[in-house]
Design a protein that fits this description.
The complex is a heterodimer of chains A (about 500) and B (about 160). Helices cover about 40% and strands about 20% of the residues of chain A. With about 500 residues, chain A is α+β, with helices and mostly antiparallel strands. Among the domains of chain A are: about 10-50 and about 435-490, no CATH class; about 235-340, no CATH class. The longest helix of chain B has 23 residues, at about 135-160. The chains are: A alpha+beta (about 500), B alpha/beta (about 160).
């Protein structure tokens, strides 16, 4: 299932186009495209920097510091790291089962994070492409363009994100740098007043979420021919699945399907993830390439995230999202267990999850156990623990080994974007074949590559965005490697 | 007419990425040094990893806001920090996942909200690696920036800006 455009036969004779960095994604990544004189594409690669070093950052620290420290790996999904580390370290403190209140507070925090992250991605990062067109006027193709043309939509996006952040603030203690989850449970009770504060806006939140599902479905279906084909490559899918096969973004066991929808493995305990998932490295990328061991490194790559999750599960246990999932499947007319592989369907799946998150938040807020005061559990100490959570971008794995002095001696993180590394590479190669082959690259055409990457909502790195640290350039290099032209892009022109 | 919300000091940066921590570190120093102004409701502090469009909502109803961030380059190559006015403006950050102060103000304007008087306190940083602390040069720059900010804060209060500092 992997494609040819990973390595050109003779790169020295080819022209190189660099998109650096890929915009409207988190962190720093770049795409290199090698073309011959006729514009035929010979090699396409997505390079992602800075992932190495995360594990080293954690090793040697006391385990109880870890849930707070790992939030600093990522400015976009700190809550996912916070909760995933806590889940892994629950096992180290012997809390194999949390108190009912602790689990519900954590779930509330997690679904708040899902809601705000998905809102940011759809309304502010993806909607400019979807509403105005992939090759539309660059000056308009941004959140301000959306705010000017669709002010109500832009406000909804901001308010949905704000609501998710309020959920996080109340459960984690702070909007950022929260400390709510600790090994063994949580350290903060949710009060009745806080619950009521979150309940008040929920009807509006649910209405906006339903509207977003309709919008994304309409957008996909009105561009059906292009969206179904755009960068589409078949792959396997991996995600957690909850009890009875339901969609569960906080906890469960691992399930993988092959490209035809057949189950590859199911019910795998997170502690045994290494029995199914192996990791590979390539000389040209800092990021690891995970693969399903039984399939091998060449064809064992897979996809994670919303498209994987809503197709891997058997049902969604909230009514509005389940109805939306059924409509999604009916629209694509996939057979029993069949899979949708179009990367642009990620947007639709993501918004179904946004709606599901709002429904779960509502359910939790009406559950009296949320307000309980039994916050911590413990048991016999263990030396290691694996936590797996479905973060906004996909499956997130934290694995820690802790010594008798309470220090972390080993740490392995497989973040969502790493799982999708090969998938994103395969997708942009397909987009390059479909849109770039034989054509002179323009900003509009190159944006198609970025649109494909953004569909995965990748988190390419971490939260360093000091003033002046965000170069945005497009370089054209001749076959000898000499720079022919360098364009700096701003909000209005290239 | 409702009273203006307090002056907002909005610090940006990751505390575990070397000099990217300048923003949150500055905030901590201000919190200690200007506790009285905070308690009196004249000054409000907020920190985040990076600026996003929803920060526009934090700015609504304010007379004045100061963004604080680490900076790799400053207009004056010898300066340790700069404190300059910011205006709403579309810039390259609209293509990114994180926004500049000018872009947040522009988003606010696009949403029909009046923008506050805005300043950017940019403090020079040089190392941004994960797990590093502040560099020596950044510590010196931070202290100098704190002195300048405190003077400016006094000036705003003495000028009788009233609510919203």
């Amino acid at each position: 299932m992997s494609s040819s455009l990973e390595k050109a036969d003779d790169p020295t004779k080819l022209r190189r186009v660099v998109i650096d960095p890929v915009s409207r994604v988190e962190g720093h990544g770049k795409v290199t495209i090698l073309l011959d004189e006729a514009g035929k594409v010979h090699q396409v690669r997505l390079h992602i920097v800075e992932f190495r070093g995360f594990e080293r950052f954690i090793q040697g620290r006391p385990y109880w510091e870890v849930p707070v420290m790992v939030q600093r790996l990522c400015g976009i999904c700190p809550v996912s790291h916070h909760l995933c580390a806590s889940k892994a370290l629950d096992l180290v403190v012997g809390a194999r089962r949390l108190t009912e209140t602790a689990e519900k507070v954590r779930r509330l925090m997690h679904y708040g994070q899902m809601l705000q992250s998905h809102a940011l991605h759809f309304f502010h990062l993806a909607s400019p492409d979807l509403l105005f067109g992939f090759g539309s006027d660059l000056a308009k193709r941004n959140i301000v363009g959306v705010a000017a043309a669709f002010p109500e939509l832009a406000k909804q996006g901001i308010m949905l994100r704000k609501y998710g952040q309020e959920v996080i603030r109340i459960t984690a203690g702070k909007r950022v740098h929260g400390t709510g989850a600790i090994p063994g449970g949580v350290n903060k009770q949710v009060t009745a007043a806080e619950r009521d504060e979150l309940l008040a806006p929920l009807p509006q939140v649910l209405e906006w979420a339903r509207g977003a599902v309709k919008l994304v479905a309409d957008l996909h279906l009105s561009h059906r021919a292009e969206y179904d084909r755009f960068g589409t490559v078949p792959s396997s899918f991996l995600s957690l699945v909850g009890e009875g096969g339901k969609l569960d973004l906080y906890d469960g066991t691992l399930r993988a399907r092959d490209h035809a929808g057949q189950i590859l493995f199911d019910g795998v305990d997170p502690q045994d993830y290494r029995s199914q998932i192996e990791e590979n490295v390539r000389s040209w990328s800092y990021m690891k390439f995970p693969f399903i061991g039984s399939l091998g490194p060449d064809v064992g790559w897979y996809r994670v995230g919303p498209l994987a999750r809503i197709q891997n599960c058997d049902f969604i246990d909230t009514p509005l999202a389940e109805e939306a999932r059924q409509q999604f499947r009916a629209a694509f007319a996939v057979p029993e267990n069949g899979l949708v592989h179009a990367p642009l369907a990620y947007h639709w799946a993501r918004i179904i999850e946004l709606l599901h998150s709002a429904e779960v938040i509502e359910r939790l807020l009406h559950d009296d156990a949320l307000l309980g005061d039994e916050l911590l559990a413990k048991g016999p100490r263990a030396k290691s623990g694996v936590g797996i959570i479905e973060a906004p971008r996909g499956t997130l794995i934290h694995h820690y080994e802790v010594n008798d002095q309470d220090l972390v001696t080993e740490c392995n993180l497989i973040v969502s974007t790493t799982h999708n590394n090969q998938a994103m590479n395969e997708t942009i190669r397909e987009v390059a074949r479909q849109y770039l082959d034989g054509k002179e690259p323009t900003e509009g055409l190159l944006n198609h590559v970025e649109v494909a990457i953004r569909a995965y909502d990748p988190c390419l790195s971490c939260a360093t965005h000091a003033l002046g640290k965000m170069p945005l350039t497009l370089e054209f290099v001749d076959p000898s490697g000499a720079l022919v032209e360098r364009l700096v892009r701003d909000g209005e022109s290239l | 007419m409702p009273a203006k919300r307090p002056l907002l000091l909005l610090a940006i940066g990751n505390p575990s990425r070397g000099d990217d921590a300048l923003g949150p570190a500055f905030l901590e120093r201000v919190e200690a040094e200007h506790a009285g102004a905070i308690a009196a409701g004249e000054l409000e502090l907020l920190t985040d990893f990076q600026l996003q469009v929803e920060h526009a909502l934090d700015l609504v109803g304010r007379r004045r806001v100061v963004f604080v961030d680490a900076a790799v380059t400053l207009a004056d190559p010898r300066a340790a920090f700069t404190l300059e006015r910011a205006e709403a403006r579309k810039d390259e950050s609209f293509s990114s996942h994180a926004l500049s102060p000018a872009a947040v103000l522009e988003a606010m304007r696009a949403l029909g909200e009046p923008t506050p008087e805005s300043w950017v306190l940019a403090i020079r940083g040089e190392r941004f690696e994960l797990g590093e602390g502040l560099s020596d040069a950044a510590r010196v720059a931070l202290s100098a920036a704190l002195v300048a900010f405190s003077e400016r804060l006094r000036g705003w209060r003495d000028a009788g800006a009233g609510d919203g500092a």
